[in-house]
Specification:
The protein is α+β, with helices and mostly antiparallel strands and 286 residues long. It contains 7 helices and 13 strands. The chain has a domain at 45-222: Glutaredoxin (3-Layer(aba) Sandwich). It has helices at residues 4-31, 96-109, 132-146, 162-172, 211-221, 229-237, 251-285, and strands at 49-50, 63-65, 71-73, 84-89, 120-125, 155-158, 174-175, 177-179, 184-186, 190-194, 200-205, 238-241, 246-249. A 5-stranded mixed beta sheet has the order 6-5-4-10-11, with helices on both faces. The longest helix is centred in the C-terminal third of the chain and has 35 residues, at 251-285.
């Protein structure tokens, strides 16, 4: 049986140890106070994102190097007829940029319009340290995935100097920052659809894209001037919903189209009746 003396002999050292641990923990907490809440974002990353500058004109005189190492102006990709899609990425990106480019390719593979025929696609690196040697490898990789021989002239992987990149990203509203700890760029992602004249028409945010949304954005950039009659009618009946990031049916335009169809049907039905009545009237006069 344990005596009161033996109990005290066990409790005293145990209590002493607990007090020591508690005091030690308090000292460590005071020596290393938390400088930032776990959920708080570092100041340098708070401004990262994309501001939609819809309707803004891009400076088409900006110079870039294509994957062949040739210096070309941005204007060389705009012919005044076809829309141009721009993705701001960097080729050595370990994650987000690859997901974005994969998403673009996956969507465009399901669209019956081909790059170089109905539109141009530009992947532009915002890292001034990257050059044509990386760009050409990236293009070769994605051309294999796109798997449409003869469309290479519709895909362009560009690089440029820091000043040019700064001007373009500011015009697009693309804000990014270098993460020293991770040694990579912190940034958002979006495919920027521009008109044949170089004005920003639509931002398609994210890394996955709906085939219909992509096609309608291309059509919207030209006011329905590319594609078949059916493509134009589909574009006319849809309107972009920024809250859903996709095109949805526009009731008013559907009513307009429906009204026009009713008029055409009535005209087709009534015209023969009117012609027959007129002929009978003329015959009675004779």
């Amino acid at each position: 049986m344990m005596t009161s003396c033996s109990v005290r002999s066990l409790l005293v050292p145990a209590l002493s140890l607990l007090v020591a641990v508690g005091m030690g923990s308090g000292v460590r907490a005071e020596q290393k106070p938390s400088s930032m809440a776990a959920s708080e974002m570092p100041a340098e990353f708070k401004n990262i994102g994309i501001t939609e500058n819809l309707g803004s004109q891009l400076d088409l005189s900006l110079m870039f190097k294509n994957e062949k190492g040739e210096s070309v102006p941005l204007s060389s990709f705009y012919d005044g007829t076809h829309p141009v899609v721009i993705s701001l990425v960097y080729y050595s990106c370990p994650g987000l940029c690859n997901f974005h480019l994969n998403g673009v390719i996956d969507a465009l593979k399901t669209v019956d319009w081909s790059a170089g025929d109905k539109f141009q696609y530009l992947a532009i690196s915002f890292d001034p340290k990257e050059g044509p040697e990386l760009a050409v490898k990236k293009k070769e990789s994605y051309m294999k995935v796109y798997a449409r021989p003869g469309t290479e002239d519709g895909w362009h992987f560009l690089t440029s100097d820091a000043d040019t990149i700064k001007k373009l990203t500011e015009q697009v509203g693309f804000r990014y920052a270098w993460n020293k700890e991770a040694e990579e760029w912190a940034h958002a992602s979006a495919a920027v659809v521009t008109t044949p004249q170089g004005k920003i028409s639509r931002y398609l945010h994210g890394i996955t894209f709906d085939q219909r949304t992509f096609k309608l954005a291309l059509s919207e950039a030209t006011n329905g001037q590319i594609g078949s009659f059916v493509d134009k009618m589909v574009w006319y009946c849809f309107k972009y919903d920024p809250h859903q990031s996709k095109y949805t049916l526009y009731a008013f335009r559907i009513m307009q189209v429906g009204g026009a169809l009713i008029i055409l049907i009535l005209a087709a039905f009534m015209t023969p009746v009117w012609i027959r009545a007129r002929r009978e009237h003329m015959a009675l006069k004779k």
